[in-house]
Amino acid sequence: MRIKELRKEKGIKQIELCKVLGISQGNLSNWENGVYEPDKSSLVKMADYFDVSVDHLLGRDEISTPNYRNTYPLEPYIKLPIFGEIRAGTPINMEQGETGEWEYADASYGDGQHFMLRVNGNSMSPTIPDGSMAIIRVQNYAEPKQVVAFAMDGDYATLKRYYPQSDGSILLRGDNPEADSYLITKDQIQNGEAHILGIVRSYKVNL
pTM (2 decimals)? Predict the structure, then answer.
């Protein structure tokens, strides 16, 4: 991803690019640092703004091709299952049944290990706004500071940033400074009372 590189070449600050794209500075920082991937619409807007191809923006080529800057890679749409919702705040019961599906252009999510959950609450704002659809990869581990879908007491789940502690416990914290944090003890983890459902790969606002 060449967003930061192109932005600096153009000599603009993050806040200026955010105004052009109509996004928050938190979203742009996450894209530049590889935490999340931009959606198709944002990729095209940035490619237009920097006068490059989407492939060049994604780092898939070595030379900018302005004549094809609006071209998006022709990949087959994949369908991701939607499983209820997850609370970005106080843990709530997460519906396990499939409630629908969403077509997505990025085939890298079509490996059968990804699903979607509707985000309910603002504890992850401004990074992931209330009402967003989070794309989650199924896995039971995470890197420090990654955003995870975390299950507690069986069916209860929440969306939080993951901070493993030196004593074996886990601190779950939202990006909203006013949101509650949760400390998961080592015993809860070892007894299977709490575990990671998966990590957030991307999200779409107001689907």
Answer: 0.55
